[in-house]
Amino acid sequence: MVELVDGLLLNGFCHDSEMPGEKRVKYILVTGGVISGVGKGIISSSLGVLLKNNGYKVSAIKIDPYLNEDAGTFSPYEHGEVFVLDDGGEVDLDLGNYERFLDIRLTRDNNITTGKMFKHVMERERRGDYCGKTVQMIPHLTDAIVDWIERVARIPVDGTSEQPDVCIIELGGTIGDIEGMTYLSAFERFQRPTLKNDLMNVHVSLILHPNATGEPKTKPMQNSVRHLRAAGLVPDLLICRSTEKLDPHLREKIAGFGMMDLEQVVGVHDVSNIYKVPLLLQQQGVLEAITQRLRLSEISENIRKDLKFNMNHWTNLSELCDTFQQVVNIALVGKYVKIADAYASVNKALSHAAIHAKRKLKITYVDSELLENKPGMEEQSRAAWDSVKAADGVIVPGGFDKRGVEGMINAAEYCRKNDVPYLGVCLGMQVAAIEFARNVLSIDGANSTEFNSKLHENQQIVIDMPEHNVEEKGLGGTMRLGRRSTVFLTDECILHRLYGTHTVEERHRHRYEVNPHVVPQMARKGFLFVGMGVDEQNTDIWDVKKRTDSSAELMQMADQTEIDLLHKIDDLCQRGGDGVTRPAVRMEMFEMKDHPYFVGAQFHPEYLSHPLTPSPPFFGLLLAATRQLNSYFSGSRSPALQVVNEEEHLHHTKENDSEEKREDVVGAMLGKLKLEGNAVPGTQRLASFH
């Protein structure tokens, strides 16, 4: 009888396709207490790092309990940036942390929202899947949540066909929020004897340090643990976030009040860089706690030896970030600079590039509105301009609507005229084109139809894409989204040399584009669109594209070396369609002739940046800002991972100068990171410098 009950319980949970004896995915549920933004995303990613760098295969899911279907219509001030995946999914920025830390590729299904789950359940109800039953939060919604998680957790995300061993699930918000109660109820089923070894709960909470008391307070943390237990879950690990290192007596106090063993209380204090967090967890035995709690199979020594990236490499990476002394100052001119998370991926891409350029990064945030020189704001405008002029390079990232755009245009003009390294991403590329049209082509009133819908035809430098009909389809999910192909029209350009490949695939998120009709005129004045793309038709499988006639024409012309760049641009812009009946040629990458580094990309290269493989446009910006670009191309100096000469120099010469010795140490540390991570060939980012 017990065997029958156990079987029914298991069958009720298992996916239809699961066969007896098939490997089951184990789950780590990460919850948070006291405040949101306590660091659950970094903790979740760090747990994955411990597992993956010790041979386990890891996936990740983020649960956001809000009613929005996805993050696509959010203001950056709500939840920070909107991260875009290969399949065009607009998701929470924590999925960006998962991808960067774990070197994996996720899909839109890896981000669960309450709105998405309600829609899923109601669609099933309309189809009659519930056979006339009353559809309720429990069990129908909770069952749908678990079924969704179990299905997605099985999907390989590292480029292999192998099922993950562990799926890390981060529950957004804090324990006690009414929005999250349904999800906690769904995970209660893991308290059953047959499933208790399939789920581990890691609770992240905050130790407060009020200035008025002068001592840390643990009562809020105790209350969050109490709320978690009341919801039916028992924490297996308690991660204590704090500004300072956790004192032993405080750890004992927390263990006592939380009814936990001392080994279950883990301290994570503020550190100099986020790559140290997995090391803090490792030092406190977290990996051993996970493998024992979930009864994970031991990884063989042969598999461990074959890992291209392990915790020793991770230690080198974390130490490397604190090694650099020379500072590079990048001015980020944007609309949402009041919150750093609005540009989370841009910040990370800059930091990745700084590692490989051997510099300590300083990002100066500049409100683009203050660069518009408005009356009554002279003092603030002067300070903003001083920040731009003091920077070694400038980046203008993406954004929407007209607020602050004129300030971005002014920043682009300053960089163009003064040979300041400039990188324009999405809107940043568009404002550079508008500035060029106004001041070089002398097109009076040149602008984007996004900011002025009444422009004359010859003033429309940036236009909307007609296939993305906002009036009929609304705002959500109607942009040009996801991974798309871009082809270089010439090998003789900076960006091609940085990418090192003829075709690149990057992620997009935009509704407007540079007007192909004005591009030939711009090209003859030195504003060269060196990379173009077309929309490829989606199939039922999101990562399989059907090549269109326009795409084939672009590929064929790009390969014709006997045709010069200007004639290619002329011909391709004339062949472009309207985007509805025929895919239009897309202006994807430009660079300015006779400028040290003035480039732009319509796509978002920051989404695919990684600590070991920095995004090429960002890497180029850092090289140009530190005056290393020419030497990098000539091979006389190698600031990226290609540091063999410097490493040999460390062992075969004796340098008296301390600065040169320090540079050699940095080179040796970079040399230890000359690898491509754990992903198989074919899934690596094209921005690789190994």
Automatic annotation (TrEMBL):
Q: Gene3D superfamilies attached here? A: 3.40.50.880, P-loop containing nucleotide triphosphate hydrolases (3.40.50.300)
Which terms are listed as keywords in the entry?
ATP-binding, Glutamine amidotransferase, Ligase, Nucleotide-binding, Pyrimidine biosynthesis
Known pathway: Pyrimidine metabolism; CTP biosynthesis via de novo pathway; CTP from UDP: step 2/2
Q: Which PROSITE patterns match?
A: GATASE_TYPE_1
Superkingdom of the source species: Eukaryota
Any Pfam family from its record, for instance, is: CTP_synth_N
Q: In what residue span(s) does the Glutamine amidotransferase domain sit?
A: 339-526
Q: Which GO terms describe its molecular function?
A: ATP binding; CTP synthase activity; identical protein binding
Q: Does the keyword Ligase apply?
A: yes
The terms describing its cellular component in GO are: cytoophidium; cytoplasm
Catalyzed chemical reaction(s): UTP + L-glutamine + ATP + H2O = CTP + L-glutamate + ADP + phosphate + 2 H(+)
Q: Which residues form the CTP synthase N-terminal domain?
A: 26-296
- Give the enzyme's EC designation: 6.3.4.2
Any GO BP annotation: pyrimidine nucleobase biosynthetic process
The protein's matches in NCBIfam families, at most eight in alphabetical order, are given as: PRK05380.1, PyrG
Instruction: Identify its protein family.
Output: Belongs to the CTP synthase family.
- Stated role: Catalyzes the ATP-dependent amination of UTP to CTP with either L-glutamine or ammonia as the source of nitrogen.
Write down the PANTHER family for this protein, in alphabetical order.
CTP SYNTHASE (PTHR11550), CTP SYNTHASE-RELATED (PTHR11550:SF0)
Name of the featured protein: CTP synthase
Organism of this sequence: Caenorhabditis elegans
| Phylogenetic lineage | Eukaryota, Metazoa, Ecdysozoa, Nematoda, Chromadorea
